[in-house]
Amino acid sequence: MFDINPGLMVWTVVTFVVLLLVLSKYAWKPLLKSLQEREDNIRDALGQAEKARAEASELLKQNEVNLARAEEEYQKIVREGKAFAEKLKEEIVAKANAQAQRQLQQAKEEIQRDVDAARQQLRTEVADLAVQAAGKILDESLDAQKHRKIVDNFLNQLPNS
Q1: Assigned domain for 9 exists
Q2: How many other β-carbons are positioned within 10 Å of the β-carbon of residue 134?
Q3: Tens digit of each residue's pLDDT (9 = 90 or more) over 131-140
Q4: Is 111 within 8 Å of 86 (Cβ atoms)?
Q5: 22 in a structural domain
Q6: Number of Cα atoms under 13 Å in the Cβ half of residue 154
Q7: Tens digit of pLDDT for each residue in 106-130?
């Protein structure tokens, strides 16, 4: 069945060794080299991905800090705005009250002037009526200036009410 041929066996071993040498020199080294490069590239990519993840995590933390600062600033601005609005409201109310007081005082002064003028006019009319009445009572024509002086003196002696 099987015949062993020593010449064929030697040539098979020699061919196998030569093929092994050729493959190791031209195929295994480049193949191992490309596998090593691929492994290095994968390690670099993983390192870069880890670095990018760490940077993203740091940016996320920084964004959270910035958001917290922005919220604090917003709250501060709102508080200042409310305080300013309250102060402005108080100033406006104070000015309005002061204006109302001034107008009220002016009105009181004007009323007092009108009352004084009316009193003076009433005195004058009363004096004229008194002179006329005295003239009719005495049934003689007295000097109007003397009568006026008498009535004015009498009216000045009356209390001012």
Answers
A1: no
A2: 14
A3: 777 766 765 5
A4: no
A5: no
A6: 13
A7: 999 999 999 999 988 888 888 777 7
